[in-house]
Design brief:
By secondary structure, the protein is an alpha+beta fold. It contains nine helices and nine strands. The protein has one domain. Helix 2 runs antiparallel to helix 3. The N and C termini lie far apart (64 Å).
């Protein structure tokens, strides 16, 4: 029996379990580098630096542009009293604890033995010796952290606001916001599980989980850029190298001094209506993306990394004018500084209340200016054809803190000491 679009959309629950008609949406991911384009075998890197001007987990060096597994966990911080000075001191303690745990877990090692009369210091999920396993811990703050509780309002990054709701988005409060966001990425899912358990154990009473979602990156099949759950290669045009650095790190003199070296982070949790998508013809699917599904090539090209020639196709006879790639990246001089760095993952939450597959995309983007970059692109995507098959329902805007410079530094020290 055929399934009508209207009936499918009306029959599913809202929010994380829902499938209401969605607004235009950036479909993200990370581009494999040139070496990976010719081989499906991409080696895993054992460790990434913890100390530096920038946090790891934003631009990942090496043969992989991101680790295969991830977790995005949003927390509400706990302010212990009505005094801003007391609360900011408690926040500083929390950030120092977070730094200590992240420094140890990303470096690996043997947990301390607390003796037989104490609970063990580690869950032992990873065995008696914690491997590094390519773990990165990236800490970001939302605009809510800069409210009256901590007296930080004057130090808020200039472009940091609550996440904008675009037309036909279906926001679910259970999946939105949070004062702090931890982005955990690693080579294996048990490392992700171990890390979130360790951090929540050591920060109990100082911050409380608000929402959490785990993701995975598909391997290149058969080669090149990995695919999203709609079957298309995802992130082919992601900027790399020096261009990526120029688009990501905040260096605007108008921003608070402490924020230089950080980055604006957008997280959008997007359900994909995969069962309905699978009933759409291949010609229609490729027209919506502007790329071939099998090779990832633009519709006017032959291979994945061919650049579409929009000037030769001004009326969209080959690549439709409302295709995703044409709207997201028009490839003009005027839009060159609007590009973003995407670090997205697939997710699968099982079934919704109506028995439909509840899976999709954790879209993650980093940029210097969330308004100039993400919001400008997303505005162009309003009412694109893909809106019938995707539903953004959660996430938020965050500011990835500058890096931890050395052994005596800690997350947010320059902010909280300002």
């Amino acid at each position: 029996m055929s399934l009508s679009r209207r009936r499918f959309l009306q029959g599913s629950a809202a929010g994380a379990a829902g499938t209401a008609l969605a607004g235009g949406v950036l479909i993200g991911g990370a581009r494999a580098d040139a070496d990976a384009a010719t081989s499906a075998a991409v080696p895993e890197q054992d460790a990434y630096p913890f100390h530096g001007d920038h946090q790891s987990g934003i631009l990942t060096p090496g043969p992989r542009t991101k680790q295969p597994f991830s977790c995005f966990a949003a927390f509400d911080t706990v302010a212990p009293g009505s005094s801003a000075s007391r609360n900011v001191a408690a926040l500083a303690d929390l950030m120092q604890t977070l730094t200590g745990r992240a420094r140890f877990l990303t470096g690996g090692g043997v947990p301390p033995d607390l003796g037989v009369d104490q609970p063990p210091s580690d869950s032992d999920v990873l065995g008696p010796v914690i491997p590094r396993d390519g773990l990165t811990v990236t800490v970001s703050a939302s605009s809510s952290l800069f409210d009256d509780r901590y007296g930080l309002a004057s130090l808020k990054p200039r472009k940091l606001t609550p996440m904008r709701v675009f037309p036909n988005d279906s926001p679910d409060p259970a999946w939105l916001g949070g004062d702090l966001l931890l982005q955990l990425c690693a080579n294996h899912p048990d490392t992700i599980h171990h890390t979130i358990r360790d951090i929540t154990r050591h920060t109990r009473g100082a911050m409380q989980l608000r929402w959490k979602i785990e993701g995975y990156a598909s391997p290149p099949r058969p080669a090149g850029t990995p695919r999203n759950l709609l079957g298309f290669k995802d992130g082919t045009a992601n900027p790399v190298g020096s261009l990526a650095s120029e688009l990501v790190w905040v260096d605007d003199p108008a921003e608070p001094a402490w924020a230089h070296g950080g980055s604006y982070q957008v997280v959008r949790i997007i359900r994909m209506l995969v069962e309905f998508w699978d009933r759409v013809s291949i010609n229609e699917q490729e027209g919506m993306f502007g790329r071939r599904r099998d090779t990832g090539a633009p519709l006017d090209g032959n291979s994945e990394f061919d650049k579409p020639d929009y000037a030769a196709d001004p009326h969209g006879n080959v690549i439709p004018l409302d295709s995703h790639i044409r709207l997201a990246n028009p490839r003009t001089k005027a839009t060159a500084d609007q590009r973003i760095i995407r670090r997205s993952y697939n997710y699968d939450l099982g079934l919704d209340l109506n028995g439909n597959i509840q899976a999709g995309h954790v879209f993650v983007a980093y940029q210097q200016d969330v308004h100039r970059q993400f919001e400008t692109i997303q505005t162009r995507l309003i009412n694109e054809p893909l809106v019938d098959y995707v539903q953004p329902f959660g996430g938020g805007y965050f500011f990835a803190l500058p890096g931890v410079s050395g052994a005596r530094d800690w997350y947010g020290r320059r902010l909280l000491a300002a």
